[in-house]
Amino acid sequence: MHLVDLRSDTVTRPTAAMWDAMRRAPLGDDVLGDEPTVTELERRLAAMLAKEAALFVPSGTMANQLAIRCHCESGDEIVAHRDSHIIHYETGAPAALSGCMIHPLDGESGLFTPEAVLASRRSRATYAPRPSLLVVENTHNRGGGTIWSLERFHAVAHAARSLEMRVHVDGARLWNACVAAGYAPAEFARHADTVSVCFSKGLGCPVGSALAGPADVIDRARRFRKMFGGGMRQSGLLAAAALHALDHHVDRIAEDHRHAIRLATGASTCRGISLAIAPDHTPTNMVFLHIDPTICTAQELSDRIARQGVHALALDPQRLRLVTHLDITTAGIDHAVEAIRSALG
Ligand SMILES: Cc1ncc(COP(=O)(O)O)c(C=O)c1O
């Protein structure tokens, strides 16, 4: 049976060439400061994002939480879209690890306006929380893999700075945004203080993320990484996979985006399915299907297609998320569409 795992782009397995790169990597001990492959990756990523320094970490969650810990003090407020990953999927870590509260902003598909940022302004009274950080997610996961344009990001970053806030980009899928929108990572990162990126999503690595930013912030993040339990030893094994992915897996992301359009287009012709984003405007590698509640729930559809080897995530009672990635072929997409069609009758 065809196995088509569309739950997330995190499910990819290393390719043979990636395993070879991992096997060949010179290794050291990163906590002791002599891991040559990690050092090479950190240098390369800092250059790609035009930042002074970068830090390799185990997960995107840790990269975001290190940024929050470095930029904010206990009692501060973070401004972010209400559908942000840091709100929904990071176990309340901003409160637990940094003592911060979050001011959620509204906006279509995970994007908001400079006016919304300005409206989050607080009084400077001693009793008011201090908004110190704006977090922008690009691409926006719960928003449907949506992309921030350079202009829009510049405008919200400018608004945040006018309120004396710093700016962090959750760029777990910045690569997807860059490939789809045609801007370079450094062009986008220019308006941010810090940027987190993941190698374990669209780039197809088994593990690994990074935080890039000013040297003094990254020095502090290195200390907090150890404090949070993220100091790693022969992590060059993982950094080698990331270096390989930067060389070989960035441009091919365009294929994942073509697959997402093919999937959205096919699924949109199935009974009881509607899409908030028109199929041919699917921005990157995510497809969200809304299922007519008189037919079934997202979980029931997920269970039915799983019997045909197609795996997806029920995000909400009527919303199913499917994500394309390196291990998905065109035949797999077509199989998924037929599985959805037959599951809906
Ligand atoms: C937008 C976004 N940020 C951060 C993360 C966290 O990454 P990790 O699962 O490596 O902690 C994810 C994971 O899917 C994500 O989608």
Our estimate of the beta-strand percent is 15-25%
CATH architecture of the largest domain: 3-Layer(aba) Sandwich
CATH fold naming of the largest domain? Aspartate Aminotransferase, domain 2
Ligand inventory reads: pyridoxal-5'-phosphate
Q: Would you count the extended β strands for me?
A: 13
Helicity level, as a percent range?
Answer: 40-55%
Let me know the average pLDDT: 97
Number of domains: 2
Shape: globular
**Major sheet: order of its strands?**
2-8-7-6-5-3-4
Number of helical segments with 4 or more residues: 14
Order of helices and strands: EHHEHEHHEHEHEHHEEHHHEEHEEEH
Q: Supply the CATH class of the largest domain.
A: Alpha Beta
Task: Characterize the biggest β-sheet.
Answer: 7 strands, mixed
CATH homologous superfamily assignment of the largest domain:
Type I PLP-dependent aspartate aminotransferase-like (Major domain)
Give start-end ranges of low-pLDDT stretches. none
CA-atom Rg in angstroms? 20 Å
Instruction: Output the structural class.
Output: alpha/beta
Separation, N- and C-terminal Cα atoms: 21 Å
Describe the overall structure.
With 345 residues, the protein is an alpha/beta fold. It folds into two domains: 14-248, 3-Layer(aba) Sandwich (Aspartate Aminotransferase, domain 2); 252-344, Aspartate Aminotransferase, domain 1. It has 14 helices and 13 strands. The protein has helices at residues 16-24, 36-48, 60-71, 85-88, 93-98, 114-119, 150-162, 174-181, 185-189, 215-227, 236-248, 253-267, 298-306, 330-344, and strands at 4-5, 53-57, 76-81, 101-105, 130-137, 166-171, 194-198, 209-213, 273-274, 286-291, 310-311, 313-316, 319-323. The strands form three sheets. A seven-stranded mixed sheet has the order 2-8-7-6-5-3-4, with helices on both faces. A four-stranded antiparallel sheet has the order 9-10-13-12. Helix 1 (16-24) crosses helix 11 and helix 3 (60-71) packs across helix 10. The longest helix is centred in the last third of the chain and has 15 residues, at 253-267. It is globular and about 60 Å long. The two termini are 21 Å apart. The mean pLDDT is 97. Bound molecules: pyridoxal-5'-phosphate (PLP). Residues 59-61, 64, 85, 137, 141, 170, 172, 198, 200, 209 line the site of pyridoxal-5'-phosphate (PLP).
